[in-house]
Amino acid sequence: MKKTTLYLKGCVHLQHFYTPVPRQSVDSSCPPRAIYQPDLSTATHFGNSANFRIFALNIDYTQIMLLQDKLKSYTVILASASPRRRELLKAAGITYRLAEKFECDETYPATLPTEEVAPYLSLLKSHSYPTPLGYGQLLITADTTVILGNEVLGKPANEEEAKAMLRKLSGREHSVITGVTLRMDNRAQTFSARSVVRFTDLTDDQINYYVENYHPLDKAGAYGIQEWIGYVGIERIEGSFFNVMGLPIQRLCREIEAFIEELPSCCCY
């Protein structure tokens, strides 16, 4: 029996599929959706009609394809200077191309609510990307903010400012919000994730040792949870650990999958 390509969507365990006769041409204006090619020799063949061959398949379609497989038709571009974000994306199995460095004025309105700063800046970075996105390219930009009360703690300008930030965070609870923007040539989506972190009481010796040895000037709030200070100083965390590192990777994978599934109808077969 000849195999037929089925373009599947959704989660079913037993369903009849009325599979159209394969087209001779495909609209190339949209990236192709991920497809699954089952071996119909093991399926139940119920018969033919003028335009369809009818089969019943026993398959759990949620197990068919991982996200990294679905992304093979796309070029993922990560526009971030953060080595933590690169590490997390790679660890999740997502192949990407690193964007060349570009300028972005990371200024936000003074009246913007603190919880909206990170998603606002991630969208600003996306729109600042200087190269027009081509066919099948997916751009990822992100920004992470540390919020203590109503104060946004960004990246410290120098070691003294880093030490001052850590003294503020010592013995207190703060929020870490990462905003992420996904963008293709014709659409964009921004989301954010929030984690709550509590530091134990840090001594001046601990703060001085960490800043002078780990130089956290590239980190919002002047610390990296994956570094020494996280082992000795973090008392409690609620939410995603990886979000505090700079990228809510589990949420990102889910959002990417939904994003590419919602492509224009010209990509549905």
Q: Characteristics of this structure?
A:
single chain; 269 residues; alpha+beta; Maf protein; 2 domains; seven-stranded mixed beta sheet; three-stranded antiparallel beta sheet; 10 strands; 25% strand; globular
Descriptive account of the structure:
Strands 4, 5, 6, 7, 8, 9 and 10 form a seven-stranded mixed β-sheet that branches. Helix 2 (83-91) links the parallel strand 4 (75-78) and strand 5 (97-98). The longest helix is centred in the last third of the chain and has 13 residues, at 249-261. It is globular, with a radius of gyration of 24 Å. It has eight helices and ten strands. The protein has helices spanning 67-70, 83-91, 117-128, 159-169, 204-214, 228-233, 241-245, 249-261, and strands at 14-20, 44-48, 52-58, 75-78, 97-98, 137-148, 151-153, 173-183, 188-199, 234-238. The protein has two domains: 14-65, no CATH class; 68-261, Maf protein (Alpha-Beta Complex). The chain is an alpha+beta fold.
